[in-house]
Structure formats: C-alpha cells, structure tokens
Write a structure and sequence with these properties.
Helices cover about 75% and strands about 0% of the residues. It is mostly helical. Helix 4 packs antiparallel against helix 5 and helix 10 runs parallel beside helix 12. It is elongated and about 85 Å long. The chain starts with 6 loop residues before the first helix and ends with a helix.
Length: about 270
C-alpha cells in the first residue's frame, strides 16, 4: 500500500530517520531498482537490512542483484547474519552458484552452529567436504560453549563422531540433556567415562528420594550396563546395582525397577 505522503516526501523522511528498509523497499516498488541497489550498498549497516533488500530484489526478478546485496550484507556487523547467510546459501544453490552457496553455508554455521547448518554445509561442499569439515569443527571447538548452546554443540560433535569434544562439553555442564546423548553415543568407545558420568547423574536423584524421577534415574544404570558390557565389567556392574538396590530397599518404587534391570542384563 502506498504511503499517504508523496514518494519523494516519503523517501526524504525515511532517509532522515535512517529507515533503510523502508527507503530501499519504496525505491523497488517504484521500479527504481538501480537506485535501491546503489543506496543499499552505500548505506546498509546490518545484515538484516541486507536481507530485506535482497528479498525485495528477488521478488522483483533481480536474483543476481539480490545475491550481490546478500554477499555485501555478510561483510557487515550486526543482527541477522545467520538468517541472511542461510537465505543466501539456499538462493545461491538454486541459482547454480556453488561457491557462493558454500561460502554462505560456512558463514551461516559459524554465526549459529546447529546440526541442520552443519548438514547443509556438508551437502554443498562436495569433494571439498573433508577440508571444510575440519575448518568448521575446529572453529566450533575453539568457540565459547555456554549452557544455552551446549546441547546444540554436542549434537554436532556427535554427528561428526568427534567424541572427545562432545565429552569435554558434557564434563563442563553436567546437565542431563547434554550428558545423556553423549553417554548413549560413546559407551562403546569410552566405557569408563560413560560409567562415571551415568553414576553421577543417577545417584543424586535416588539419594534424594525423588520418586517421580526413579524411572528416568534407572535409565542411567542401564546405559552404565551397556558400557560395562563393552568394557568386560558386567560382573562389577551387577554387584554395583545389587548393592544400590539393597542400600535403598526401603524405596518400594525403586527396588522393582532395579531388579527388572538386572534381569534384562542376566543373559549377557
């Protein structure tokens, strides 16, 4: 819908108030495409502005200009870099611009590392994937993993079979949502770590008598049993579970769960 102001007055107001998105969008709606591109290249100050302009250019059948604005936008600091990089990655792939698509995929991953971004990069890299993989995994390993993103980082490292990096994150945060997928993935390669990590998760729940959590708590000894089996230590594991069962025999909900677990491992 057109503004109540005339076009020139609207553009003057948008420029005066630094509303870059509004300015460039109006230029495009007026079919002043080259002006919009030139203004954007000179005045864009954040990736999210570039994404708005790039989308508008694509909608007005200027796909190549949209790619160029997107690439320029990725050189800027500010909000929206991951969204812009993902958009450019997908558009460039559709336009058969593999080098642009791969560069954008790497940028998208580094801006917001997720398994989906990692897999998209893998798909686009082709025969260059071994080199690209090492670069982005090294970058991920060197960045600051926080409680907020620990689960996502672990997911990537496990998919890439970089178990040492995943274990290092699990050791830092000790959150069950982080530890559990690592233990499930590495119990054969790292049984001793798995045994210790699972005990550390299960024992506080049971010791504190959180009966509503018993079923989840027993999942940890089950994973420990798998690790003990891989390490040839099932007898020690059985003795541990039996002692734990006897020590907490007054917990009537817990005891049958542990007995059932021992039965499940009886024939191994």
């Amino acid at each position: 819908m057109r503004p109540l102001l005339g076009v020139d007055e609207y553009l003057a107001l948008a420029a005066a108030t630094n509303r870059i998105d509004a300015y460039t969008t109006m230029l495009i709606e007026e079919d002043r495409i080259n002006e919009a591109i030139e203004y954007g290249q000179q005045n864009l100050h954040a990736p999210n502005n570039a994404l708005t302009l790039a989308r508008a250019l694509r909608e007005h059948d200027r796909p190549q200009a949209a790619l160029e604005i997107s690439q320029h936008g990725l050189s800027l600091d500010g909000n929206g870099k991951a969204d812009l990089a993902e958009w450019l990655r997908d558009r460039a792939a559709n336009l058969d611009e593999p080098e642009v698509a791969l560069e954008a995929a790497v940028t998208a991953f580094e801006a917001a590392p997720t398994l989906a971004a990692y897999q998209a990069t893998e798909e686009l890299a082709g025969e260059d994937w071994p080199t690209v993989r090492e670069e982005i995994l090294r970058s991920l390993a060197n960045r600051d993993t926080t409680k907020r993103n620990a689960q996502r980082h672990v997911e990537i490292f496990l998919y890439a079979e970089r178990y040492d990096e995943a274990i290092a994150i699990a050791d830092r945060f000790l959150d069950d949502m982080v530890v559990e997928p690592v233990a499930d993935a590495v119990f054969e390669e790292h049984p001793e770590w798995t045994i210790d990590a699972c005990k550390a998760q299960a024992e506080p729940i049971i010791e504190e008598g959180e009966s509503q959590q018993y079923r989840h708590a027993v999942d940890w000894p089950a994973t420990t049993g798998n690790a003990a089996d891989a390490a040839g230590e099932l007898n020690e594991w059985r003795a541990y579970v039996q002692d734990f069962r006897d020590e907490h025999s007054e917990k009537y909900k817990l005891r049958p769960m542990l007995e059932k677990l021992l039965e499940e491992f009886a024939d191994r």
